[in-house]
Amino acid sequence: MLPTAEMVLWAIHHATTLLFGVFASAALCGIEINRRHALELVMVGAVTGCAFGLANAVGGELFARQVYPLVVHLPLVIYLCARYRLSPLLVMLGVTSAYLSCQFSNWMGIAALAATDSQIAYYAARIITTAVVFAILLHWASDIGPRLAVKTPTELEILLILPLVYYIFDYATNVYTTLFHSGSVVTVEFLAFALCAFYLMFLAVYLREYEAKEIAERERWMLATRDSAAIKELEAWRQSGRELSVLRHDMRHFLRGLAALIEEGHIDEALEHIDELCETNDRTAVRRYCANDTVNIVLSSFSSDINRSGITADLRAAVPESVHVADVDLFSVLSNALDNAIVAASAAPQGKRFVDLDLRCEDGQLLLLVSNTFGRPPRMVDGMPVAGHTGHGFGTKSIKLAVERMDGNCQFRIHGDRFELRAVM
User: Fold this and answer.
1) Could you give the percent of the chain with pLDDT greater than 90?
2) Do 354 and 311 form a contact (C-beta atoms < 8 A)?
3) Nearest CA to 266 among 258, 274, 254?
4) What is the average pLDDT across 392-408?
C-alpha cells in the first residue's frame, strides 16, 4: 500500500497526464480550446479517467496500463472524429503526438528518482513538467494545429509514422512485455532505425511539397503578369479606337491641309502626312464582329497573326454591347484561347490549318467554342493540356482561372483532329 503522500501525488500525476493528453490531442488537431470545448474535453477526461480507475481497481496498475489504449485513447479518437468531424489520420496524429510528448515528464521523473531515490520526487517532477509542457504545447499548438488540419492524407501519413511507431514500440516493449529493460540490442536500436526511416520519408515528402509550392507560386505570378499585360493591351486598343474616332472627325481638315500643301508645291511633306495617316489607320483598324467592343478588339488584334500563319479562320460572335462579365476577364479568355489556337494550328501541315471560334450570348450566359487543328495532339492530364510543343498548356491555365473568376466552367478536349475549348461564362 502506497503512503498517503505518494498516493495523492500518484492520483494527481495520472489526472494531469490524462488531461494533458486529451487537451494536447485536441489542440494538435486544430480544435480551438474555448470555454465550451474545454468543458467538453474535461468531461471526456473524467469519463475515461473513471474507466482507467476502474481498471486499476479491478486488475491493478499493470492491467490498467495495458488496457489504457482501449479505455482512454480509443474513446478519445472516436470522440474527436465524431464531435468535430475530423480525419481519423489527423486525430491519430494528434493523440500519438500527445503521447510522445509525455516523454518529457517521464524523463524528468526518472531523473528525479535517480537523484533522490524518492517516489515523491518522481511524481512531483512529473506533475510539474507536465504542467510546464502543457502550457508550452497549448500555445504552440494554436499555431501548428490549424496547419496540420489542412494537410493532405499523404502528408499526415508521413507525419504519423514516428509518433505511431513509438506508441507501438513503447507498449510492445515496455507495457505488454519487458523487452525494453532486457537490454536486447535489437530492441534498443529499433528506435534509431525508425527515426532514420521517418527522416528519409519526411525529407522526400517535404522536398516534393516544397517544389510543388514553388511551381504553384511561379505559375500564379505568371498568371498575374498575363492579366496585367491583358489590361494594358486592352487599354492600348481602346486608345487606338479613340484615336481613330478623332482621326475620322478631323479627316475633312486633314484633307484640306493636304490640298493646301499640294497647291503650294510641298509634295514630299504631303506624302509624309499621307504615310502617317495610313500607319495610324492600320494601327487602329478594328473590324466589327458584334456589338461588343472588347470582343471586336480581341478578334481584330489576332487577324494579322492568322493571315501571317496561313490559317483559315472562321470567327463568329453574337455578343451584345454590354455583358455581365468584366472586360479584363473576357479579354483574357479570348486572347489566350486564340493565341493558343493560332500557335497549335501553325504547327499543322499547310492546307490543314484551321481555327474556328463561336462566341454567343444565350439566356444571360456567354457560350464559347474554340476549335483548332494541330501538328501533334497535346498531352492531357486531369482534363488539362500539358504545356509543350502544341501551344496549349500555360495559356489554358489562364483561361481556367479567368473563367472561374466569372463563376463559369470550361472544358478542354481532343475531338477527332481538333483541340476544343468549351466555356460557359
Assistant:
1) 36
2) yes
3) 258
4) 77
C-alpha cell read off for 273: 502626312
Would you say residue 98 has pLDDT above 60? Answer: yes
pLDDT (0 to 100) of residue 394: 59
**pLDDT score of 1:** 46
pLDDT of residue 226: 56
Q: What is the rounded CA–CA span in Å between residue 7 and residue 393? A: 70
Predicted model pTM: 0.53
C-alpha cell at 158: 508521413
